[in-house]
Write a structure and sequence with these properties.
Elements lengths: L2 E5 L10 H12 L3 E5 L5 H14 L2 E5 L13 H21 L1 E6 L15 H19 L4 E4 L13 H11 L4 E6 H7 L3 H8 L3 E6 L14 H10 L5 E4 L7 H6 L9 H18 L3
Parallel strand pairs: 1-2, 1-8, 2-3, 3-4, 4-5, 5-6, 6-7, 7-8
Helix pairs in contact: 1-2, 2-3, 3-4, 4-5, 5-7, 7-8
C-alpha cells in the first residue's frame, strides 16, 4: 500500500523536542510517516522522537550519509571498517526510532571524489561491506535502500544502471534501492526507463522537485514518473525531500544557498499533489 512521508530536513538535520509540533501538524495534514536524518550523537534523542511518532500514529523512515573518514570505497581497510561500524550504529538508531527503512547514498562517502571514474574494486569493496551490513539490518527487519546521487555529490552511483549493478553484487534481501526524482532529473535520459531499470530492487522513492522546492511546481516529468511507478507495481513510500536554509549548517553542507520554498508550503501542497498523482495512476 502506498504511503506518503515528509523528510524533516526541511526544518532541521538535528533531533529535538522542537520536532514534536512539526510531527503533529504533518499527521494532521494526512501524512503516513516522517523521515529523519541519522546523524545526531545523542541516543536518547532517537528514542524520544521515535516514541512520539508512535504515539501519534506516524510511521518512520530514516536517511544517512557517510563521511570521508568512513568511506566504504576507500583504499584503506581501516577507513572501510569505520564505515561498517558507523552503519551498524545508524541501524541501531533506526531501531530506536522505530524506522522501517534507512535510505541514502551510503554505498560511498558523500561528496567525496577521486580523479578517475568508478573502479571495479570500489564496487567490490562497497558490496562486501554492504552485504555484511545487510546481515546486521536483517536482525531488526530494517530495509536499507541505497541512493544514486547526481555527479556533483557522488561518483560511484549516479544512475539507476550503476545502482542496479552494485545491488546485484551486494545480493542481500535487506539491501535494496531507491529512486530520487531530483537526482534522476539530472542524470537519467528517461525517468520512466530509469524506474523500470531499478524496479527489481525498488523499495523507497523520494519525491523532490528539480529545484528542491514544492513538488509539482517545477519541471520534473511527474506524469512519466508516476506512470512508470504504476507500471512496475511499486507500492511503497513516496517521501518528500525538500531543502531550505532553516538549518544553516546543514544547508551550507549541501550547497543550499537560497530558499526554494517554505517548509509548510512544501508539506501542504506536496501532500495534495502526491495524493492526486497516486489516485490518478491507481497506485
Amino acid at each position: 500500500m502506498s504511503k506518503i512521508g515528509f523528510d524533516v530536513l526541511a526544518w532541521s538535520a538535528g533531533l529535538s523536542d522542537d520536532l514534536f509540533s512539526i510531527m503533529d501538524r504533518l499527521k494532521e495534514i494526512g501524512y503516513d510517516g516522517v523521515e529523519f536524518f541519522v546523524g545526531s550523537p545523542e541516543v536518547s534523542d532517537y528514542r524520544k522522537i521515535g516514541k512520539h511518532a508512535k504515539d501519534i500514529g506516524l510511521d518512520v523512515t530514516a536517511v544517512t550519509v557517510l563521511s570521508p573518514e568512513e568511506n566504504l570505497i576507500d583504499s584503506s581497510p581501516n577507513v572501510r571498517a569505520k564505515g561498517f561500524e558507523r552503519l551498524k550504529w545508524s541501524i541501531d538508531r533506526c531501531h530506536d526510532l522505530g524506522a522501517e527503512v534507512l535510505c541514502g547514498p551510503f554505498h560511498s562517502a558523500f561528496a567525496t571524489f577521486a580523479q578517475h571514474a568508478p573502479q571495479e574494486q570500489e564496487y567490490d569493496w562497497s558490496a562486501e561491506i554492504l552485504h555484511r551490513v545487510g546481515d546486521y539490518a536483517q536482525q531488526t527487519n530494517l530495509i536499507l535502500t541505497l541512493e544514486a546521487l547526481n555527479r556533483f555529490e557522488c561518483y560511484l552511483c549516479n544512475t539507476m544502471s550503476q545502482l542496479k549493478y552494485l545491488l546485484e553484487k551486494v545480493n542481500h534481501p535487506n539491501v535494496k534501492g531507491m529512486f530520487d526524482t531530483h537526482h534522476a532529473n539530472i542524470e537519467e535520459k528517461s525517468l520512466g526507463n530509469a524506474i523500470e531499470t531499478i524496479a527489481p530492487y525498488l523499495e523507497h522513492v523520494h519525491i523532490s522537485e528539480n529545484d528542491r522546492g514544492t513538488p509539482g511546481e517545477g519541471h520534473i516529468p511527474w506524469e512519466e514518473s508516476f506512470s512508470a511507478l504504476a507500471k512496475v507495481g511499486y507500492d511503497g513510500w513516496y517521501t518528500i525531500e525538500g531543502f531550505t536554509r532553516n538549518d544553516i549548517d546543514f544547508a551550507n553542507s549541501i550547497n543550499v544557498w537560497r530558499e526554494f520554498a517554505q517548509p509548510w508550503d512544501m508539506a501542504e501542497k506536496g501532500f495534495k499533489f502526491i495524493e492526486e498523482m497516486i489516485q490518478k495512476h491507481s497506485l
